[in-house]
Predict the structure.
Amino acid sequence: MTDSRVPCRRRFLVCEPRHFAVQYAINPWMHPDTLVDVDLAHEQWQALISAYRTHGHDVDTLEPVPGLPDMVFAANSAVVVDGRVFGSLFHAPERRPESTHYDTWFQAAGYDVHRPRSVCEGEGDLVWTGRYMLAGTGFRTTREAHREVQEFFGHPVISLTLVDPYFYHLDTALFVLDAGREGNIVYYPEAFSTGSREVLARLYPDAVLATRDDAMAFGLNSVSDGRNVFIAPRAEALASRLSDHGYVPVPVDLSEFQKAGGGIKCCTQEIRS
Protein backbone atom coordinates (compact mmCIF):
# COMPACT_ATOMS: atom_id res chain seq x y z
CA MET A 1 0.00 0.00 0.00
CA THR A 2 2.92 2.34 0.71
CA ASP A 3 3.84 2.47 -2.96
CA SER A 4 0.36 3.79 -3.79
CA ARG A 5 0.89 6.87 -1.62
CA VAL A 6 2.21 9.77 -3.67
CA PRO A 7 3.97 12.67 -1.92
CA CYS A 8 3.04 16.22 -2.89
CA ARG A 9 5.85 18.77 -2.98
CA ARG A 10 5.26 21.50 -0.41
CA ARG A 11 6.63 24.94 0.34
CA PHE A 12 7.21 25.82 3.97
CA LEU A 13 8.11 29.00 5.87
CA VAL A 14 10.11 28.57 9.07
CA CYS A 15 11.91 30.75 11.61
CA GLU A 16 15.20 29.86 13.25
CA PRO A 17 14.96 29.36 17.08
CA ARG A 18 17.88 31.69 17.77
CA HIS A 19 15.97 33.43 20.58
CA PHE A 20 13.78 30.52 21.68
CA ALA A 21 13.06 30.33 25.43
CA VAL A 22 10.19 29.78 27.84
CA GLN A 23 9.75 33.24 29.33
CA TYR A 24 6.02 33.22 30.15
CA ALA A 25 3.16 30.73 30.50
CA ILE A 26 0.28 30.86 28.03
CA ASN A 27 -0.54 27.14 27.86
CA PRO A 28 -0.27 24.18 30.29
CA TRP A 29 3.02 23.02 28.81
CA MET A 30 4.85 26.27 29.60
CA HIS A 31 6.62 26.99 32.90
CA PRO A 32 8.84 30.09 33.03
CA ASP A 33 11.38 28.31 35.26
CA THR A 34 12.00 25.72 32.54
CA LEU A 35 15.48 25.87 31.07
CA VAL A 36 15.78 25.47 27.31
CA ASP A 37 18.89 24.03 25.74
CA VAL A 38 19.15 26.52 22.89
CA ASP A 39 21.92 24.60 21.12
CA LEU A 40 19.89 21.39 21.21
CA ALA A 41 16.78 23.25 20.07
CA HIS A 42 18.70 24.58 17.10
CA GLU A 43 20.04 21.11 16.25
CA GLN A 44 16.52 19.66 16.39
CA TRP A 45 15.13 22.45 14.25
CA GLN A 46 17.90 21.98 11.68
CA ALA A 47 17.07 18.26 11.60
CA LEU A 48 13.47 19.13 10.73
CA ILE A 49 14.55 21.45 7.93
CA SER A 50 16.94 18.80 6.61
CA ALA A 51 14.17 16.20 6.68
CA TYR A 52 11.88 18.46 4.66
CA ARG A 53 14.53 19.18 2.05
CA THR A 54 15.63 15.54 1.86
CA HIS A 55 12.04 14.63 0.99
CA GLY A 56 11.88 17.23 -1.77
CA HIS A 57 10.15 20.14 -0.08
CA ASP A 58 11.04 23.82 -0.42
CA VAL A 59 11.86 25.77 2.72
CA ASP A 60 11.97 29.55 3.15
CA THR A 61 13.36 31.12 6.31
CA LEU A 62 12.32 34.23 8.20
CA GLU A 63 14.90 36.08 10.28
CA PRO A 64 14.12 35.78 14.04
CA VAL A 65 13.71 38.87 16.21
CA PRO A 66 15.17 39.29 19.71
CA GLY A 67 12.55 39.39 22.45
CA LEU A 68 10.09 37.17 20.57
CA PRO A 69 10.94 33.67 21.83
CA ASP A 70 7.88 31.99 20.26
CA MET A 71 8.51 33.36 16.78
CA VAL A 72 9.90 29.92 15.88
CA PHE A 73 6.29 28.67 15.85
CA ALA A 74 5.68 29.87 12.32
CA ALA A 75 2.37 28.04 11.87
CA ASN A 76 0.60 30.51 14.14
CA SER A 77 1.47 33.49 11.94
CA ALA A 78 -1.04 32.98 9.12
CA VAL A 79 -2.93 30.57 6.91
CA VAL A 80 -2.26 30.64 3.17
CA VAL A 81 -4.65 29.18 0.59
CA ASP A 82 -4.46 29.78 -3.18
CA GLY A 83 -1.83 32.45 -2.66
CA ARG A 84 -4.05 34.45 -0.30
CA VAL A 85 -2.73 35.21 3.18
CA PHE A 86 -4.95 35.54 6.23
CA GLY A 87 -2.72 36.86 9.01
CA SER A 88 -2.85 36.46 12.76
CA LEU A 89 -4.02 38.35 15.83
CA PHE A 90 -2.64 36.53 18.84
CA HIS A 91 -4.61 35.98 22.03
CA ALA A 92 -1.55 36.57 24.22
CA PRO A 93 -0.14 40.13 24.20
CA GLU A 94 3.38 38.67 24.41
CA ARG A 95 3.03 37.17 20.93
CA ARG A 96 1.20 39.94 19.09
CA PRO A 97 4.38 41.66 17.79
CA GLU A 98 5.24 38.49 15.84
CA SER A 99 2.47 39.20 13.34
CA THR A 100 4.14 42.34 12.03
CA HIS A 101 7.34 40.50 11.11
CA TYR A 102 5.53 37.68 9.35
CA ASP A 103 3.28 40.14 7.52
CA THR A 104 6.37 42.01 6.34
CA TRP A 105 7.91 38.78 4.99
CA PHE A 106 4.76 37.88 3.07
CA GLN A 107 4.42 41.39 1.67
CA ALA A 108 8.06 41.42 0.56
CA ALA A 109 7.41 38.09 -1.16
CA GLY A 110 4.58 39.68 -3.15
CA TYR A 111 1.55 38.65 -1.11
CA ASP A 112 -1.26 40.83 0.18
CA VAL A 113 -2.00 40.11 3.84
CA HIS A 114 -5.45 40.32 5.40
CA ARG A 115 -5.32 41.50 8.99
CA PRO A 116 -7.98 39.77 11.14
CA ARG A 117 -10.30 41.78 13.33
CA SER A 118 -10.81 38.93 15.81
CA VAL A 119 -8.31 36.74 17.65
CA CYS A 120 -6.98 34.23 15.15
CA GLU A 121 -3.81 32.15 15.44
CA GLY A 122 -3.17 31.03 11.89
CA GLU A 123 -2.58 27.38 11.13
CA GLY A 124 -2.58 26.69 14.84
CA ASP A 125 -6.38 26.66 14.62
CA LEU A 126 -7.05 26.69 10.86
CA VAL A 127 -6.45 23.42 9.03
CA TRP A 128 -6.97 23.45 5.26
CA THR A 129 -8.21 20.12 3.93
CA GLY A 130 -8.32 20.96 0.24
CA ARG A 131 -12.12 21.16 0.40
CA TYR A 132 -12.84 23.30 3.41
CA MET A 133 -11.25 24.81 6.48
CA LEU A 134 -11.42 22.96 9.76
CA ALA A 135 -11.31 25.66 12.43
CA GLY A 136 -10.60 25.24 16.12
CA THR A 137 -11.98 27.36 18.94
CA GLY A 138 -12.29 27.14 22.70
CA PHE A 139 -8.93 28.47 23.87
CA ARG A 140 -7.44 30.82 21.25
CA THR A 141 -9.06 31.55 17.88
CA THR A 142 -12.62 32.89 18.17
CA ARG A 143 -15.75 31.87 16.29
CA GLU A 144 -15.93 35.42 14.97
CA ALA A 145 -12.58 34.78 13.28
CA HIS A 146 -14.02 31.62 11.71
CA ARG A 147 -16.70 33.71 10.02
CA GLU A 148 -14.07 36.21 8.90
CA VAL A 149 -11.96 33.38 7.41
CA GLN A 150 -14.95 32.07 5.45
CA GLU A 151 -15.73 35.50 4.04
CA PHE A 152 -12.09 36.03 3.07
CA PHE A 153 -11.39 32.69 1.37
CA GLY A 154 -14.89 31.85 0.18
CA HIS A 155 -14.45 28.25 1.32
CA PRO A 156 -16.70 26.52 3.88
CA VAL A 157 -15.40 26.74 7.43
CA ILE A 158 -16.29 24.00 9.90
CA SER A 159 -15.99 25.09 13.52
CA LEU A 160 -14.69 22.53 16.01
CA THR A 161 -14.64 23.11 19.78
CA LEU A 162 -11.55 22.09 21.75
CA VAL A 163 -12.17 21.17 25.39
CA ASP A 164 -8.82 19.98 26.78
CA PRO A 165 -6.37 22.80 27.61
CA TYR A 166 -3.39 20.57 26.78
CA PHE A 167 -4.67 20.67 23.20
CA TYR A 168 -5.23 24.39 23.03
CA HIS A 169 -4.71 24.63 19.26
CA LEU A 170 -6.38 22.48 16.62
CA ASP A 171 -2.98 21.45 15.25
CA THR A 172 -2.17 19.71 18.54
CA ALA A 173 -5.24 17.46 18.17
CA LEU A 174 -5.65 16.91 14.40
CA PHE A 175 -3.71 16.89 11.15
CA VAL A 176 -4.45 16.23 7.49
CA LEU A 177 -2.96 13.13 5.89
CA ASP A 178 -4.12 13.84 2.33
CA ALA A 179 -5.64 17.05 1.03
CA GLY A 180 -8.52 16.94 -1.44
CA ARG A 181 -11.96 15.48 -1.91
CA GLU A 182 -10.94 11.97 -0.90
CA GLY A 183 -8.52 13.16 1.78
CA ASN A 184 -8.24 11.81 5.28
CA ILE A 185 -7.19 13.05 8.71
CA VAL A 186 -5.78 11.89 12.04
CA TYR A 187 -7.28 13.18 15.28
CA TYR A 188 -7.60 12.60 19.01
CA PRO A 189 -11.36 12.44 19.71
CA GLU A 190 -11.29 13.39 23.40
CA ALA A 191 -9.73 16.76 22.59
CA PHE A 192 -13.09 17.82 21.12
CA SER A 193 -16.59 18.51 22.38
CA THR A 194 -19.23 15.83 21.87
CA GLY A 195 -20.79 17.63 18.91
CA SER A 196 -17.45 18.26 17.27
CA ARG A 197 -16.54 14.57 17.57
CA GLU A 198 -19.79 13.71 15.83
CA VAL A 199 -19.01 16.17 13.03
CA LEU A 200 -15.55 14.69 12.51
CA ALA A 201 -16.91 11.14 12.54
CA ARG A 202 -19.41 12.04 9.81
CA LEU A 203 -16.89 13.89 7.68
CA TYR A 204 -14.11 11.34 8.11
CA PRO A 205 -15.51 7.88 8.85
CA ASP A 206 -12.16 6.31 7.96
CA ALA A 207 -10.00 8.71 9.97
CA VAL A 208 -7.02 7.40 11.88
CA LEU A 209 -7.76 7.86 15.58
CA ALA A 210 -5.04 8.67 18.06
CA THR A 211 -4.81 7.88 21.76
CA ARG A 212 -4.08 10.36 24.53
CA ASP A 213 -0.55 9.00 24.75
CA ASP A 214 -0.10 9.76 21.03
CA ALA A 215 -1.45 13.26 21.55
CA MET A 216 0.57 14.01 24.66
CA ALA A 217 3.69 12.97 22.71
CA PHE A 218 2.79 15.66 20.13
CA GLY A 219 2.01 12.98 17.57
CA LEU A 220 -0.90 15.07 16.27
CA ASN A 221 1.37 18.07 15.67
CA SER A 222 2.61 16.39 12.51
CA VAL A 223 3.05 17.31 8.85
CA SER A 224 2.10 14.96 6.01
CA ASP A 225 2.93 15.32 2.33
CA GLY A 226 0.50 12.58 1.36
CA ARG A 227 3.04 9.80 1.83
CA ASN A 228 5.67 10.85 4.34
CA VAL A 229 4.50 11.88 7.79
CA PHE A 230 6.96 13.98 9.81
CA ILE A 231 6.09 12.90 13.34
CA ALA A 232 7.36 13.04 16.94
CA PRO A 233 9.35 9.86 17.67
CA ARG A 234 7.59 9.15 20.97
CA ALA A 235 4.25 8.73 19.16
CA GLU A 236 5.21 5.15 18.38
CA ALA A 237 1.70 3.64 18.41
CA LEU A 238 0.40 6.28 16.02
CA ALA A 239 3.40 5.84 13.73
CA SER A 240 2.66 2.11 13.62
CA ARG A 241 -0.98 2.74 12.68
CA LEU A 242 0.09 5.15 9.95
CA SER A 243 2.43 2.51 8.56
CA ASP A 244 -0.45 0.07 8.50
CA HIS A 245 -2.37 2.59 6.37
CA GLY A 246 0.48 2.88 3.86
CA TYR A 247 2.17 6.06 5.10
CA VAL A 248 5.87 6.41 5.88
CA PRO A 249 6.59 7.88 9.33
CA VAL A 250 9.60 10.20 9.40
CA PRO A 251 10.52 10.67 13.08
CA VAL A 252 11.89 14.10 13.97
CA ASP A 253 12.62 14.88 17.62
CA LEU A 254 11.58 18.41 18.67
CA SER A 255 11.47 17.68 22.40
CA GLU A 256 12.97 21.06 23.38
CA PHE A 257 10.05 22.85 21.70
CA GLN A 258 7.52 20.74 23.59
CA LYS A 259 8.60 22.70 26.67
CA ALA A 260 6.68 25.60 25.10
CA GLY A 261 3.80 23.46 23.85
CA GLY A 262 5.06 23.21 20.28
CA GLY A 263 6.19 20.59 17.82
CA ILE A 264 6.74 19.86 14.16
CA LYS A 265 3.62 21.54 12.76
CA CYS A 266 3.94 24.50 15.11
CA CYS A 267 7.33 25.21 13.54
CA THR A 268 5.98 24.90 9.99
CA GLN A 269 3.91 27.40 8.01
CA GLU A 270 2.73 26.03 4.65
CA ILE A 271 2.60 28.40 1.70
CA ARG A 272 -0.11 27.21 -0.70
CA SER A 273 0.23 29.38 -3.78
Observations:
- The two ends are 30 Å apart (CA to CA).
- The chain has a mean pLDDT of 97.
- Helices lie at 38-54, 96-108, 143-153, 194-203, 212-216, 236-244, 255-258.
